[in-house]
Amino acid sequence: MDLLLDGGAPGDQAANLALEEALARSGVPSPLLRIWQNESCVVIGRAQRAEREVNLATCAAGGVPVLRRASGGGTVYQDLGNLNISLAAPGPVPGLAVETAALVAAVIAGLGLVPRAGERGVFVGAAKVSGLASHLTRDGTLAHATLLVTTPAARVGAFLTQRRTGPVPPTRGAARWPRCATWGVTSA
Hints:
By secondary structure, the protein is of the alpha+beta class. It has helices at residues 13-26, 50-53, 56-62, 96-110, 153-159; strands at 2-4, 32-36, 41-44, 66-68, 76-78, 82-90, 115-118, 121-124, 127-136, 140-148. The chain has a seven-stranded mixed beta sheet with strand order 1-2-6-10-9-8-7, with helices on both faces. The protein has a three-stranded mixed beta sheet with strand order 4-3-5, with helices on one face. The model is unreliable at 164-188 (pLDDT under 50).
């Protein structure tokens, strides 16, 4: 397995997400591990609606960009208080997200906590401490996770909308939106 050390700058969040997509689409020659960080931003999954998931006014006021990634999964707030862990592999590897969850859970267990890994994340008790998503292409697979380290939950909650209960309307057409699109927010 290779380790990508020069994997982007924390202040260029859109470039970091573009690199993630490129790793999946290019078909890396051998498995690759990338551990990286972003400065403050909100990242939505490929089929999500920004207006449903994100407090756009708060993001605009705080200069926090809202970006779209190529993979599915839920909306995440990122800053220098969390780590992004990415695994890229050649060809389609459907179980790579599960393996990524196991990797993150093993690190958390090594800290003396009792994690529970599932398809949508890693939990310690009721708290979700890591979210997961993956992107499979003909040439490669990318699975990635975020791991909250020092970011306060209140900061995360300030930029995301509250979870709704009940059925969620379909997001037909959302996947056609440009990847890494920014919704009228510029970095401060």
